[in-house]
UniProtKB/TrEMBL annotation:
It comes from Fulvivirga sedimenti. This is SDR family oxidoreductase. InterPro entries: NAD(P)-bd_dom_sf, NAD(P)-dependent_oxidoreduct. GO terms for cellular component: cytoplasm. One of its GO terms (molecular function) is aldehyde dehydrogenase (NAD+) activity.
Length: 274
């Protein structure tokens, strides 16, 4: 048995929020030999997680009827995949849970919606506290909260628009007939690359940092969503109006720091696989 595999077996990883992305990350980490537990708010999902090898933990933050505060198992690394809508109103309680778990490293899933639509390429330092047209004010405040937990090193991964198994490109077009900004670039990332990025952080445990996770290639909305609609057998959307303000997410920092290469660098190529 290799030393790295032996070390992975000793680490306990907690995934707070075993949804679409959290469950995929848990499955990957189990295969690598880590001990993984995952939280859920639904008793119906307990058996599903258990079958995947993920130890299920029932966790309902912000529950006013709870007689006592929930407690997490002893943990080495925590991955926070809860949605901002859940995290933000319960941020103090979640921070306390993380601190009391004994975790030394936190991976926080954030989003590239922290960047302004300024018709430029945006890097990690370009995020702004703006309430409109994106949710940067909440996401950045959330990042600040969890980057300052005493004794915990935090890595923030800002994911672009997510797609992958069960979340195929173009599915959201089923209830939309008009899409604006036909020439605007899309910023997307495949689930597999998100999971791989999480694995890199767990393996390296780097100093605190913030990184964009986004595919290399940025097709236009018209190119991508026309092809995506055709691929799933629906009418392509009608594109209306001129191009709108946009951003193009730069992903160089994560690639340069960790030698990371995307398995899904071009979302257009992925359309051929669905």
């Amino acid at each position: 048995m290799s030393e790295s595999h032996s070390n992975s077996e000793k680490k306990i990883i907690g995934i707070l929020g075993c949804g679409w992305l959290g469950t995929a990350a848990g499955k990957s980490l189990i295969k690598k030999g880590f001990n993984v537990y995952g939280t859920t708010t639904s008793s119906n999902r307990m058996s599903e997680l258990r079958e995947l090898g993920i130890s299920p933990v029932m966790l309902q933050v912000g529950n006013p009827s709870a007689k006592e505060l929930p407690v997490l198992p002893a943990t080495d690394i925590i991955i926070l995949f809860m949605t901002p809508g859940v995290i933000w109103p319960n941020r103090n309680q979640i921070s306390q849970l993380i601190r009391k778990s004994g975790s030394s490293h936190l991976i926080l899933a954030s989003a590239t919606s922290v960047y302004p639509e300024n018709n430029k390429t945006v890097k990690e330092t370009d995020a702004e506290y703006i309430s409109s047209p994106h949710s940067g004010i909440v996401l950045l405040s959330m990042e600040d909260q969890f980057r300052n937990i005493p004794g915990v090193t935090t890595t923030v991964l800002r994911f672009a628009g997510l797609y992958g198994p069960g979340r195929e490109p173009g599915m959201f077009l089923k209830n939309r007939t008009i899409v604006r900004g036909p020439g605007n670039p899309v910023n997307l990332v495949h689930q597999e690359d998100c999971v791989r990025a999480v694995n890199v952080i767990i393996e390296r445990l780097p100093p605190a940092g913030i990184y964009n996770i986004c595919a290399d290639v940025h097709p236009t909305r018209k190119e991508f969503y026309t092809a995506a609609a055709e691929r799933i057998g629906i009418n392509p959307p009608v594109f209306s109006g001129d191009d709108e303000p946009f951003k193009l997410v730069d992903n160089d920092k994560f690639k340069d720091n960790f030698g990371f290469r995307y398995m899904h660098p071009d979302p257009m190529e992925d359309l051929k696989k669905y």
